[in-house]
Amino acid sequence: MRRSLTRHLGAAALTVAVAAVLAACSATPAASTSHSPSAAAVPTGVTGAADFDKGALVVGDGKTIVDTYIDPMCPYCGEFERANGRTLAEKVNDGTITLRVHPLNFLDPNSQGTNYSSRAGSALTCVAASDPKTTLTYLAALYANQPEEGSSGLTDTKLKSLAHGVGSTSADSCITSHRYASWLTQNTQKALNGPIPGADIKTIKGTPTVLVNGHQYGGDITDTKALLAFIAKGGK
Question: Is the pTM of this model over 0.85?
Fold first, then answer.
């Protein structure tokens, strides 16, 4: 009986693991060096919600640290945001969590030469730097209007329009200049090559990747109850 149960449990665990892998946009270290969207200097320090040294857009001040690694073009990141974005924002607002969003750009080659992941990730950073309170609403807007992977993506004009729609009107020139594209490339190289500071994983293998106090969430990316339970337990 024990052997049979073990076999079934092993099969179930494998199914969950395979599902987790399939529900992610895969990334390889080579992807982080396959394009050069910007030769601009990489920013440092903190501006608004953008902590350039930590490679994250940081909102909230809760004790529990939630890190999300995302690519604006990744369809699974869109699924994750649409399922969990509002709930995570609520946990930020009630002081439960500090949310650190790490925008990556390894899917740039999948946007017909427009470097959409860099442009959208840079736009998100522009908004976070200039209007921190609109960071998560703009993130939600990006995924509510997410283009198909393999398309040319949203235009810069549309990215500006979405910013205006969430109340961020001071980021236009930043968005059109792709000011933070080089920072996204640096983030991507660090994430894909590692190490990941304070985490129980060495590198980011795909997006979305979610860490709670450094522990990776391995559940269904659209199961908000499971994610909340993982957060409540501090990632244990």
Answer: yes
* Series of mean pLDDT values for 10-residue runs along the chain (236 residues): 31 39 68 51 96 98 98 98 98 98 97 98 98 98 97 98 97 98 97 96 97 98 98 95
Q: Residue 103's CB: how many other CB atoms inside 10 A?
A: 31
Q: Give me the domain span that covers residue 7.
A: 2-232
Give the H or E element holding residue 211: strand 209-212
Rg for the chain (alpha carbons), in Å? 18
CATH number of the CATH domain containing 177: 3.40.30.10
- The angle subtended at Cα 204 by Cα 191 and Cα 64, nearest 5°, is 90
Judge whether 203 and 196 are in contact, CB under 8 Å.
Answer: yes
Question: Distance between CA 182 and CA 103 in Å, rounded?
Answer: 12
